């Protein structure tokens, strides 16, 4: 018999039935935001068109309509002036940190919003690396994870629901887990580990947005080589054993096999995928040059993440997707 497939495809609802588990709802999206200290700031980011760094007041105005459209969760990044950076990332958790300042306001303005904080030292370090360096510019792992745990606890104390360490130091999840328990925050704060985070060229635009590019060398001594799948799975496994509540693969589109492997290995852990700044820029500019329709290509990329096994997609396109979801109702 000739096998017929077109008979499954002639109606939109029939087509949806062929995509089980790939639906995109507001719960499947997390929106990354860059926060700065000047309350009235709304700074454009050259490398990331349509994305901005917000001060508290502008952030509130920006988020109000998005919450109306169903925005469920955000991921916060603090950005400070270079003059405030030092060798110990002092302002990662000081009273002058924009995340520490704005988080309590966000909780008050939007009590239902799920708020995650990126935990790293690079945006607050004068050298731009994700850990503390010794005199030979080598990462001091023990000192780094101690500092990262302090930062995670500080974000937890001001109301973060999720702390998301992106630094990739060894055993940071255990250090953060222990510190949260010591401060009795373990029932109020989840750990979303950037468990399979690859050293990637796709982070370029972000490093401009967050002013967090390393001043010398690169991050290959602590982020994964792009071809490594065994080591990626060891990293994921280690983070699960150390107490990660949720897992992440980053970047997204070039690493869909890793998304699938991670989901297969730990199906019980919610899995995030980060469609990073370079992917954002690539789709944005590609569409602008007429290579494809942005909305169409965006929805296709979302389906791809879901099909590969991602439960939640961290994407700068979240506002656009919220509009698309409204239209499709
Ligand atoms: N550790 C900081 C951090 N957290 C998230 C990203 C990348 C996000 C993006 O590109 O959108 C980076 C950059 C890096 O590791 O160099
Ligand atoms: Zn970092
Ligand atoms: Zn190196």
TrEMBL record:
<dbReference type="GO" id="GO:0005829">
    <property type="term" value="C:cytosol"/>
</dbReference>
<comment type="similarity">
    <text>Belongs to the ALAD family.</text>
</comment>
<dbReference type="InterPro" id="IPR001731">
    <property type="entry name" value="ALAD"/>
</dbReference>
<feature type="binding site">
    <location>
        <position position="207"/>
    </location>
    <ligand>
        <name>5-aminolevulinate 1</name>
    </ligand>
</feature>
<feature type="binding site">
    <location>
        <position position="221"/>
    </location>
    <ligand>
        <name>Zn(2+) 2</name>
    </ligand>
</feature>
<feature type="binding site">
    <location>
        <position position="122"/>
    </location>
    <ligand>
        <name>Zn(2+) 1</name>
    </ligand>
</feature>
<feature type="binding site">
    <location>
        <position position="219"/>
    </location>
    <ligand>
        <name>5-aminolevulinate 1</name>
    </ligand>
</feature>
<dbReference type="GO" id="GO:0006782">
    <property type="term" value="P:protoporphyrinogen IX biosynthetic process"/>
</dbReference>
<feature type="binding site">
    <location>
        <position position="120"/>
    </location>
    <ligand>
        <name>Zn(2+) 1</name>
    </ligand>
</feature>
<dbReference type="GO" id="GO:0004655">
    <property type="term" value="F:porphobilinogen synthase activity"/>
</dbReference>
<protein>
    <recommendedName>
        <fullName>Delta-aminolevulinic acid dehydratase</fullName>
        <ecNumber>4.2.1.24</ecNumber>
    </recommendedName>
</protein>
<keyword id="KW-0862">Zinc</keyword>
<dbReference type="GO" id="GO:0008270">
    <property type="term" value="F:zinc ion binding"/>
</dbReference>
<keyword id="KW-0456">Lyase</keyword>
<feature type="active site" description="Schiff-base intermediate with substrate">
    <location>
        <position position="197"/>
    </location>
</feature>
<feature type="active site" description="Schiff-base intermediate with substrate">
    <location>
        <position position="250"/>
    </location>
</feature>
<feature type="binding site">
    <location>
        <position position="130"/>
    </location>
    <ligand>
        <name>Zn(2+) 1</name>
    </ligand>
</feature>
<keyword id="KW-0627">Porphyrin biosynthesis</keyword>
<comment type="subunit">
    <text>Homooctamer; active form. Homohexamer; low activity form.</text>
</comment>
<dbReference type="InterPro" id="IPR013785">
    <property type="entry name" value="Aldolase_TIM"/>
</dbReference>
<comment type="function">
    <text>Catalyzes an early step in the biosynthesis of tetrapyrroles. Binds two molecules of 5-aminolevulinate per subunit, each at a distinct site, and catalyzes their condensation to form porphobilinogen.</text>
</comment>
<dbReference type="Pfam" id="PF00490">
    <property type="entry name" value="ALAD"/>
</dbReference>
<dbReference type="InterPro" id="IPR030656">
    <property type="entry name" value="ALAD_AS"/>
</dbReference>
<feature type="binding site">
    <location>
        <position position="316"/>
    </location>
    <ligand>
        <name>5-aminolevulinate 2</name>
    </ligand>
</feature>
<keyword id="KW-0350">Heme biosynthesis</keyword>
<comment type="pathway">
    <text>Porphyrin-containing compound metabolism; protoporphyrin-IX biosynthesis; coproporphyrinogen-III from 5-aminolevulinate: step 1/4.</text>
</comment>
<feature type="binding site">
    <location>
        <position position="277"/>
    </location>
    <ligand>
        <name>5-aminolevulinate 2</name>
    </ligand>
</feature>
<feature type="binding site">
    <location>
        <position position="129"/>
    </location>
    <ligand>
        <name>Zn(2+) 2</name>
    </ligand>
</feature>
<keyword id="KW-0479">Metal-binding</keyword>
């Amino acid at each position: 018999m000739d096998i017929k497939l077109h008979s499954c495809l002639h109606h939109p609802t029939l087509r949806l039935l062929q995509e089980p588990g790939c639906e995109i709802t507001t719960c499947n999206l997390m929106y990354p935001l860059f926060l700065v200290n000047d309350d009235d700031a709304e700074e454009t980011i050259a490398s990331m068109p349509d994305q901005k760094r917000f001060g508290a007041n502008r952030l509130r105005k920006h988020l109000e309509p998005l919450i109306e459209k169903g925005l469920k969760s955000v991921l916060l990044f603090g950005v400070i002036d270079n003059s405030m950076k030092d060798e110990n990332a002092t302002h990662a958790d000081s009273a002058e940190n924009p995340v520490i300042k704005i988080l309590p306001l966000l909780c008050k303005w939007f009590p239902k919003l799920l708020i995650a904080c990126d935990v790293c030292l690079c945006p607050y370090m004068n050298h731009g690396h994700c850990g503390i360096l010794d005199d030979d510019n080598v990462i001091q792992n023990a000192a780094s994870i101690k500092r990262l745990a302090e930062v995670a606890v500080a974000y937890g104390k001001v109301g973060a629901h999720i702390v998301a360490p992106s630094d990739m130091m060894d055993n940071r999840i255990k250090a953060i887990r222990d510190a949260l328990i010591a401060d009795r925050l373990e029932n109020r704060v989840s750990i979303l580990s950037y468990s399979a985070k690859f050293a990637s060229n796709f982070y370029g635009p972000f490093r401009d947005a967050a002013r967090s590019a390393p001043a010398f060398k690169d991050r290959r001594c602590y982020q994964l080589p792009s071809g490594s799948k065994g080591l990626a799975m060891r990293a994921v496994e280690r983070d699960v054993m150390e107490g990660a509540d949720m897992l992440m693969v980053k970047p997204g589109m070039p690493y869909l096999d890793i998304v699938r492997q991670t989901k297969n290995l730990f199906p019980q852990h919610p899995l995030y995928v980060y469609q990073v700044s370079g992917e954002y820029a690539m789709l944005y500019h590609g569409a602008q040059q007429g290579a494809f329709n942005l909305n169409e290509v965006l929805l296709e990329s979302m389906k791809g993440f879901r099909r590969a096994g991602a439960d939640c997609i961290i994407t700068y396109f979240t506002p656009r997707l919220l509009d698309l979801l409204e239209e499709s109702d």
